[in-house]
Amino acid sequence: MEASLGEIPFGLDFHPSKELVAVSLITGDLHLLLDVRAHSESCRTVRFINGGQAVATGSKDCSILATDVETGSVIARLENAHENAINSLINLTDSTVASGDDEGCIKVWDTRQRSCCGSFNAHEDYVSDMNFIPDSMKLLTTSGDGTLSVCNLRTYKVQTRSEFSEDELTSVVVMKNGRKVICGSQSGTLLLYSWGFFKDCSDRFVDLSPNSVEALLKLDEDRLITASENGLISLVGILPNRIIQPIAEHSDYPVEGLAFSHDRRFLGSISHDQMLKLWDLDDILQGSANATKDQAAMSDSDSDEMDVDDNPSQSKKGTKVKNASKGAASNFFADL
C-alpha cells in the first residue's frame, strides 16, 4: 500500500500503540491524520512522544514543535532550540528526547518541563542518526564528519569518539545483544564496532557498495534491514556478514527512512519519489527463509570475527523483490 505525500519526505515514525504514522516534509509540513503547517522551513525529523499523545518535529528553522495527535493543535514550540538546523530526534525516556543539529550539537530535553537538561558538542558536522541504550544510559550518535560518538547521559559528557572514517556515517544500530554497533555510510560500507572499543571498527562489510546506506533498521539480533540510495531495501545478516536478499524496491530514488509499525506487521519506507509505502513484513520476509537456511549451511564454519573486505560476495542479480503489499495494508490507511 502506498500514499502520495505531494512533497519530498525527510522523517518517518509510527505511533507506539495505534495504527498511525507521521511523516515530515521538506516544505515544513507534518502529515498525520491532519496536515499540520508545523515549520517555516523543511521539517527534517519526526517522533511520537509522551506515549504517543504528541508528535515532535525538528526543522531547518532551528525550532522543535510538539503537536497534539488528536487535535493537531500546538502543545509547545521551542524557537531557536538549536543555533543550527535540527536534523535528528530520538525518544529517550517517557519524558525526555534528544535532538541533533547540523553542526554536531546534541541537546536533551525534558518534555514536561519544556527545558534543556544538557548538551553535547559531539561532532563537527551534522548529526545523522542516534540510538539510545537505556541500560547504560548511553546515546550513540553518527555524523557527517565520519565519526561515531558515545554520549553519557548521566554525566552529560562525550565518553568516547571514534577515529574519522573515510566517508560520512549515516545511521547506527546495536546488535548481537549489545556486543556490536553497526554504522551505515555514504559509500555503502557497513562499519562494525565492538562494544567498548569504539576508536576503530573491528569489521567492514562492503557488499552494499557503492550505493549509500541511507537508513538501518534492526530486525533482530542477527539481521537488519538496509535502505539504499538506489531505492533497494535489503535484508542483511551480521556475523556472518552477508546480504540475505533484497526484499523490496521502493523506487529508483534514495530511500530516506524506514520504520516498523507498533505491532511490527508493517515496514514503512519513504523516498524522494514523494511516496510513503507500507510493506507487509511477513510477506516480504517470506522469501528470505529459504535463503537464510541455504546460507546458514554454507557458513557453519565461519567465525564471528570474519572480515569480508577481501573478495566480497555479490548479491544475486535478478532476485525478485516485492511491490508494496495491498490488502491488510490498505486498512492501515483507511482513516487517512
From TrEMBL:
Q: Does the keyword Transit peptide apply?
A: no
- Region Disordered, annotated ranges: 292-325
Spans of biased composition, class Acidic residues?
A: 301-310
PROSITE patterns cross-referenced by the UniProt entry: WD_REPEATS_1, WD_REPEATS_2
Q: Where is the signal peptide?
A: none
Where would I find the WD repeats?
Answer: 120-161, 248-282
Pfam families for this protein: WDR55
Q: Domain of life, per the record? A: Eukaryota
Query: Which keywords accompany this UniProt record?
Result: Repeat, WD repeat
Gene3D superfamilies in the cross-refs:
YVTN repeat-like/Quinoprotein amine dehydrogenase
Protein family membership: Belongs to the WD repeat WDR55 family.
Name of this protein:
Uncharacterized protein
